[in-house]
Each structure stands twice: as C-alpha cells, then as structure tokens.
Design brief:
Strand content: 35-45%
Distance between the termini: 125 Å
Amino acid sequence: MAKIIEISYYNAFILTGGETVGDWHIEESRIRGDYNGVSTDYGARAYTTDSEYGVRRRSNAMIYSGVYNSKTKTNKTNEFSISESITRAADIAYGKIQHLHAEDSNLNIFQEHKVSRALIDKDAIYTAEGIGLTTTGQVVIGQIVPYAGKFGISDNPESFAYYGTRKYFVDRARGTVMRLSQDGLEPISRYGMKDFFRDNLEKTTIDTTSGSGEVGRVYGMYDDRHGEYVISMQHSSLTGGKKSGTESADTTSNNGFLTLGFSEVSNGWVSFYSYKPTFGLSLLNQYYTFSSGNLHQHYVGAKYNNFYSTTYSDPSYVTLIMNDGASEVKAFTTINYEGTAGWSMDRAEAENVSREGYTYNSQKEEAYKIPKKGVTILDTRGIAIDVGFKLKESKYYADIRQKLPYASSNYNSTFNTNTFNTTLGIKGYHAEIDMLYHEPTGNGKKVELFAVSNEIKI
C-alpha cells in the first residue's frame, strides 16, 4: 500500500530520506513549477544597523501611526515607519505637551506655557503677501500656529473642559483661569476673581515645605445643565467658604478644597459649592461628578444642599457689595429683599469715613444682625419688640441700626435695646452685606433670593 505524505508548504516537493533521516521539504524556485520557467530570488536587500535604536522621549513632539479602515479591514495602527515624516514637534521652549484636543479639522495643542493649533489632514501654504492658503495632502498634522498670548495649561491637564467652541483650563504658573474661544485666549479669572485665583492656585503645587510631597489638583468640568464651567482646587492648605450661622461671614474652615462655577450667561463667577469632585462631565443634559471612585448625578431628588448622599447643615449665604454713588459718602439706612421667608442679614459693614482720627481703612462701622421674620425680643420694660424682617407688599424690609464701636458690650449680643434710638444706618462709601439662610436641621429645602436693595442718604 502506498504511503501518503502530507506536504506542509506551498510550491514545494518532498525528498524521502528514509526512516532515520526523515523527509525533506524542498521549495520550488520556478514560478508554477514550469520547466525552465522564471525563477525567484531574494532580490536587492539593504542590511543596515541603527546604532541609536532605543527609547527616546520627546515631551514636545507628536507621532502618528498608520491608518485604520474598518471597511477594508486595514489596520496599520501598530506601524510607525521611520522612513516617513510621521512626527510633528512644538517649540520646546514652551514646555511639555500636556493635552491635545481635536476640534473639527483642527488640533489644539496645550503646552505648559503656550497654546497652539494645527491643521489635521491638510497643510497651509502662504503667498508672497502672507495670505494663508489651505491645501490637502498626505500630511496628517499640519503647521503648528500659536495663539496670541503667553498662556499655557501648566501641569494641570485635568483642569481642561469644553462646551461647543469654548475651551476652559487653568494656567497655574500665571495664577489665571483661561477661556479659549473663537475670539482667542482670554483670562476669565479677571472678572472679579483675579486676586482670589492668584493667591489660591499657587497653593495647589507640590508641598515641599512639610516634606509630605502632597500634589495639588485642579479639576475642571462643564455643567451643561446650568451652563457653568466648574473648577475644584484641592490641597490641604486651601480654606473653603464654610460658614456657621452664628459666626461672621469671613469665618472659614480648613476643608482642603475650593469649588466654584463660572457662568457664561452672567460672564462671571456665580457661586461656591460644597462638594469635592475628582472628575465631572455632562451627558444628555445631565451633570455627573465622581467622588471616591463613585459616580453621582446632580439635580435629582427633592433635597437641596445635598451632595454625595449627604445633606449639608451649613448655611447658604450671599455676599453683596452696595456701591451706589461710589464717590459719595452716604448712610445705608434700610435693607429689603425679595424671596423666600427665612433669610437674615448676618453682617453689614461700611468703612468709617466720618470719625476723626481714623484713616480710610482703619475701622468699619458695623450694623446689628437682622434675624428672619417673626423674631422678637423683650426690651428693658418687658415689652416684645419685633427685630426681624417685616413683610410689606411682598417684600421683606428692616432698618439698619449701627453698633456703637466704643461700647464693647454691644458686640456680645445680637441686639442692645438701650441703643435703639441711636442714629440709623452705617456710614461709608460702600457697604458689604451678608444675607444668610440657615436651617439647623439641614432639611435641604428649596429657598430663593431674587433681589436685595437698600435706601441711602447722601
């Protein structure tokens, strides 16, 4: 019976060497095995040695691979041919590339000290007059063109967030919060918060003084629900706006983070928040943040001041600057507000400009706190006096009564009935007023404050 031998290779035949030697597979060199047919050979081969082969880290450069086409099942993403121009480098003088953001046909490049853009899948050539013309070609990343202004993302790529054509990020090295839009780069921290960010962003660096090596973080996210860029600065040296209902408005607590939001509608920083996120995003008009590895959805449920399943018992408050007629010395005599019942005036101060012997900033005139509507006290005669806000024509109002700075006992109580007949109001160029809402039980109910105004006497 004939022996059947399986040939494991194409275009080959077998030489049998016997039981001890085995079989040999011989490759046919002639195409299709034709007699005197065209033969194949190795052809020209280049044998070179790359003496500099190895890992090389270029923090200012980008490299791209071959293409991936799902229709033709072509996958060359693992190919990085050194024979092709597949790298593009930014100016190393501006530091490392920290973040890349693709936007339509442009690539935004965020370095530590510069923000640039480059065309994708096309390049730009320039005429003799300097006019740019776009041309397509095999180039993947075109010419890198920097935006005007020496701002970068420092080493905080986690601060980047975007919505539409607007991109937001933090430049910690310069103490600014930036917005990149079709108008170019703009520091949005200058809208009333320039000094605040300059002082607090520098605290989020690596802690080298205590030896703990703590690394600060500046997380950025966009809240599509309220149209806000939310930034959370986190470091143990930061003090937040935590406030007690019995303490003054400038009392802070060392809670290690500051979270606040920038609104495009008002073009300003609108509020501080009590939650400490590690990342956040918007999806289908819903806002989500991460905390301790858990995902939380905001704006759900009936409780307010409730973050990460915890209802905060700390009060909500608004600090207002009354500055009508900025150059006029005036007395602030009354205060009124529109909104939910239950708000109180926790603090009212104005720089003293009338008492002789004091300079402009040496002393401030203070007012008594005004509690919520319905609060009464007993005077020296035992008669109940309403000292809270009063409701009239859907507006809550009260008189501002000045504390006497030379009577220290007045500072130890909310009201002193012996001074009720003193001059009304506090005097100065401008007044700072804190409106506070505090529920000790922390029930998280909804309260609103629409407007706050006052009467002045020049």
